[in-house]
Amino acid sequence: MLEYPEARARVLTAARFLGAESVPLLESLGRPLAEDIKAREDVPPFAKAAMDGYAVRAADTRAPEGASSVELEVVEDLPAGRVGRKAVGPGQAVRIMTGAPLSKGADAVVMVEQTEKSGSAVRILRAVRPGDNIGLAGEDLKKGEIGLESGTDIGPAELGMLAALNRATVRVARRPRLAVIATGDEIVEPGERKAPGQIRNSNGYSLLALALGAGAEAEYLGIARDRRSSLVRKIRGAGDVDILVLSGGVSVGDHDLVKSQLESVGVRPVFWKVRIKPGKPVFFGVRRRQLVFGLPGNPTSAMVTFMLFVRPAIDRLLGRKDPGPRRARAVLTEDIALKPGRRHFLRGIIEDAGPVLRVAPYANQKSGVLRSMVRSRVLIEAPTDAERLEKGREVDIIFIE
Ligand code: AMP
Ligand code: MG
Questions:
Q1: Is residue 121 within 8 Å of 131, Cβ to Cβ?
Q2: How far apart are CA 86 and CA 23, in angstroms?
Q3: Handedness of CA 4, 6, 10, 13 (dihedral sign)
Q4: CATH assignment of 327-399, given 2.40.340.10, 3.40.50.300, 2.40.50.100, 1.50.10.140?
Q5: Homologous superfamily (CATH) for 22-41+149-173
Q6: Which pTM was predicted?
């Protein structure tokens, strides 16, 4: 039986970057950039007021010997969005609003709270230094500087940066198209009538959500029954998606037909069974460039194997530099007893109070208990041969994202 790192490596070998496309700005969210984004002008493009107040020459704001304040003549009123016509000369000020281009001659802004209006003049109650309360041209990015590097995942800040850099369209990785099929005679969709002996389909939804979260374009194809014809119809219905994910039916039960039916439609097996817990019966195969995953049906096994195998495949198809799942180290807060022979991925609860990450195993580690995934934010990875992990020891953790 394969060890996890070897099985993951085989998935990555079969998965290839799908290439790039140009898309409208908003559609880039959640995908890696496929070009370096340079600033074509300074950001911000001009020096500006960072406060509502008065643009001044800082040297003019110092009160003369014996006086507690100084008065300046107000020569213009400048809202944001307009360029001033007047320069600030000695003894002068411009009334200026936040975001307005700093008037010529001025080198600071006095906050309105530190002034008093007096007719056509303004009384400055507190002196400022050059640079106070202003933003400089190019202080975010200089013209020609790279604002975002190719490969960067587009999140909220990156999307804002693209907009700031005037990119209405942007080159990003093509989204992998992924389809999810749930299998089983016993499973029923939410909202439908449930007969005795039946359970709700949860995997269809949790797996779809994991796929969307990873940046795939995911479609849910519904439930295939544990019959050859039903399975083959659903598998064919998926067409030429980049990734096909099935849940259930990959074990050794009498009605576990997924593997044989995948092979019957031309899927070449790469591996079946990996030395892990949960998720041992996981299947991976390829049909031309399509990657096909048969994940075990237990709700936790399905999610864990998605994270361990499908997530890195999506990352590779998107051209991400470090395919997932994302890892860190944490200190165990409890002893864990294990049955050696398989690499365990235990659901773990992070205690993030304190300078180091600390992790405790969730109380119920059975693979049918979906609540363990609801409560946990990480998986604790325990080596194949470990019989126990002692409290205080550092362990590998994997983020559930
Ligand atoms: P299987 O892998 O098909 O042997 O299923 C293992 C366990 O997971 C069984 O208890 C199934 O009833 C359950 N199961 C299979 N598919 C789903 C699903 N889509 N949602 C929730 N539970 C499932
Ligand atoms: Mg089944």
A1: no
A2: 43
A3: positive
A4: 2.40.340.10
A5: Molybdopterin biosynthesis moea protein, domain 2 (3.90.105.10)
A6: 0.91
Give me the mean pLDDT over the 120-148 stretch: 97
Residue 256 CA to ligand 2 center (angstroms) comes to: 6
CATH class of 48-135: mainly beta
Point out the ligand nearest to the CA of residue 302: 1
- pLDDT level of residue 363 (50, 70, 90 thresholds): very high
Ligand 1 centroid to Cα of residue 226, in Å, is 11
Confidence of residue 352 (pLDDT cuts 50, 70, 90): confident
CA of 182, nearest ligand number:
1
Average pLDDT over residues 25-51: 97
Contacts of 193 (CB under 8 A, 6+ apart): none
- Residue 367 Cβ < 6 Å to ligand 1: no
Instruction: Give me the DSSP letters along 109-124.
Output: EEEGGGEEEETTEEEE
Ligand 1: atom nearest CA of 183 is: 16
pLDDT in tens, 76-100: 999 999 999 999 999 999 999 999 9
Picking from 210, 217, 220, 219, the residue whose alpha carbon sits closest to that of residue 175 is 217
H or E, element range at 207: helix 203-214
pLDDT tens digits along 18-27? 999 999 999 9
186 lines ligand 1 (CB under 6 A): yes
237 C-beta closer than 6 A to ligand 1: no
- Which residue is closest in CA terms to ligand 1's atom 3? 248
Give the Å distance between the CA of 195 and the centre of ligand 1: 16
The C-alpha atoms of residue 73 and residue 104 are separated, in whole angstroms, by: 15
